[in-house]
């Protein structure tokens, strides 16, 4: 399969992207309906508030404990994986990760890969980097397959094609898949996709997957999915390459259980998913071809995660288990969708993790894409304080790092000398009672000269205008 060029949306154009999205009535209606549905399904599984808080406390404790011992657990994971015959690779950047994939593919003479769902592979733009070397990567998750045919990015980390209607998908299949008639029957559309993908599972020499959890003590990879494509990608091809971020490790298999329960209920409102794949290495001597791949590789990606890890204030960002609940409950995401963000991870979680992956310079507007209503933190199954992290990133985008703190990539890239000067003047005025009284008195008497345009404030609000008489003056008159 030859891919269409990726339709890339630059996060630097976020504000312009949002204006386009808000004007799209169909998009807004589709996302509102989808978010309401997902919220209702999740609420049905967490109707006991106390029970949810107790389980969330366990999940948060597991993630914090794992992160507190991250270097040690990663080393133990590598040791135990290698003992099971797994090849472990470390990649600091997307370029490093793609080079590892390319080297493996070229060593096996592979011209094709079949992929299960993996947001980290989206993060490194694996499909398009491999295509530059003549290697086709076919998405086998139905939602990912649809957005791949359309040449788009996923608009949601759990439901990649949530922004597409069945009419759009029907037209896409008719255009892109040979000998495919137009049909709006959902079951028929799924059957069409399955027919195309079945041959790929059998023929592709390399299967690619993500990883939901890694267990250090046992050298185990855990993969959660609903369609069965993940199991096909990890067992049928002769070579399996898994890729994930370095933060996904836990110490014991028992620690996976509360996280799994939180993940499935928070993501899709399911008690359990259809498939829970537990991978413990390539097939052993004496096992048949259907017992797993002959060769198994794990690519562990940094890509800015150590930047978040080194600062205790930002480390909670790495607690995320990629359930998407924060997106499903975010009023901003529900109105603009995922593509407007221009990043692999949209919504609240994308707004706090993308500045670490891409730097603050191109993502400086994303932390402002929040009303700070707190819905994201309220539903987060592992207790990430998202509003607090958004505020810290807003500050980092406009100010230099504090003494003793290493700067973030792109720190202070949004610094504005005019704004800094205005705040400095405001501080001086408020620190001097006499100056404050004089200036506010003048403001009351000259209120008629208030300008109708007040920078960004009046873009959506009426102009600020001083009252005719100040509070001090009125209290003095009333004795």
Report on the architecture of this protein.
There is one protein chain. This protein is α/β, with parallel strands linked by helices. Among the domains are: 82-306, Rossmann fold (3-Layer(aba) Sandwich); 417-477, no CATH class. 48% of the residues lie in helices and 10% in strands. The protein has 22 helices and 10 strands. The chain has helices at residues 14-22, 25-45, 49-68, 70-83, 94-107, 119-123, 126-131, 142-150, 166-176, 186-203, 229-235, 256-268, 305-310, 325-328, 331-336, 347-358, 360-363, 375-379, 386-398, 417-431, 433-445, 471-477, and strands spanning 87-91, 112-115, 136-139, 206-209, 213-215, 220-225, 239-245, 249-250, 275-279, 295-301. A 6-stranded parallel beta sheet has the order 1-10-7-4-2-3, with helices on both faces. Strands 8-5-6-9 form a 4-stranded mixed beta sheet. A hairpin with a 4-residue loop joins strand 5 and strand 6 (220-225). Helix 2 (25-45) crosses helix 12 (256-268) and helix 16 packs parallel to helix 19. The relative contact order is 0.12. The model is unreliable at 1-7 (pLDDT under 50). It comes from Sphaerotilus sulfidivorans. GO terms for molecular function: 4 iron, 4 sulfur cluster binding; metal ion binding. One of its GO terms (biological process) is lactate metabolic process. InterPro entries: 4Fe4S_Fe-S-bd (IPR017896), 4Fe4S_Fe_S_CS (IPR017900), FTHF_cligase-like_sf (IPR024185), Helical_ferredxn (IPR009051), LUD_dom (IPR003741), LutB/LldF (IPR004452), LutB_C (IPR024569), NagB/RpiA_transferase-like (IPR037171).
């Amino acid at each position: 399969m030859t891919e269409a060029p990726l339709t890339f949306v630059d996060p630097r154009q976020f504000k312009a992207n949002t204006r386009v999205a808000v004007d799209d009535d169909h998009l807004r209606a589709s996302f509102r309906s989808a978010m309401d549905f997902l919220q209702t399904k999740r609420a049905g599984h967490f109707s006991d508030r106390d029970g949810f808080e107790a389980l969330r406390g366990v999940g948060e404790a597991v993630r914090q404990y794992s992160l507190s011992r991250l270097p040690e657990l990663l080393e133990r994971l590598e040791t135990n994986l290698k003992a099971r015959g797994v090849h472990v690779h470390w990649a600091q950047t997307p370029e490093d990760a793609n080079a590892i994939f390319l080297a493996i593919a070229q060593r096996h003479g592979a011209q094709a890969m079949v992929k299960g769902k993996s947001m980290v592979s989206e993060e490194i733009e694996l499909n398009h980097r491999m295509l530059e070397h003549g290697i086709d990567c076919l998405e086998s998750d139905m939602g990912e397959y649809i957005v791949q045919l359309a040449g788009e990015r996923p608009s949601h980390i759990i439901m990649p094609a949530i922004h597409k209607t069945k009419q759009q998908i029907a037209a896409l299949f008719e255009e892109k898949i040979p000998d495919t008639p137009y049909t709006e029957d959902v079951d028929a559309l799924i059957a069409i996709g399955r027919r195309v993908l079945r041959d790929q599972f059998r023929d592709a020499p390399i299967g690619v997957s993500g990883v939901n959890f890694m267990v250090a003590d046992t050298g185990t990879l855990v993969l959660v999915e609903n369609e069965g494509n993940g199991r096909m990608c990890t067992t049928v091809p002769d070579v399996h390459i898994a890729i994930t971020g370095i933060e996904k490790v836990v110490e014991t298999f028992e620690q996976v259980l509360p996280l799994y329960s939180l993940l499935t209920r928070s993501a899709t409102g399911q008690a359990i998913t259809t498939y829970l794949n537990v991978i413990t290495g390539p097939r052993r001597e004496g096992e048949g071809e259907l017992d797993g791949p002959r060769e198994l590789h794990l690519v562990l990606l940094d890509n800015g995660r150590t930047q978040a890890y080194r600062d205790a204030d930002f480390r909670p960002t790495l607690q995320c288990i990629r359930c998407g609940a924060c997106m499903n409950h975010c009023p901003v995401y529900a109105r603009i969708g995922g593509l407007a963000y221009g990043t692999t991870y949209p919504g609240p979680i994308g707004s706090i993790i993308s500045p670490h992956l891409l730097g603050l310079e191109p993502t400086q507007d994303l932390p402002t894409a929040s009303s700070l209503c707190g819905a994201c933190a309220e539903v987060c199954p592992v207790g990430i304080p998202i509003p607090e992290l958004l505020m810290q990133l807003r500050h980092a985008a406009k100010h230099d790092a504090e003494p003793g703190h290493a700067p973030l990539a792109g720190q202070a890239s949004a610094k504005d000398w005019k704004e800094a000067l205005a705040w400095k003047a405001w501080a001086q005025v408020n620190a001097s009672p006499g100056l404050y009284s004089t200036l506010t008195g003048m403001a009351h008497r000259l209120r008629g000269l208030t300008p109708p345009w007040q920078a960004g404030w009046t873009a959506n609000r009426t102009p600020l205008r001083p009252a005719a008489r100040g509070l001090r003056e009125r209290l003095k008159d009333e004795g």
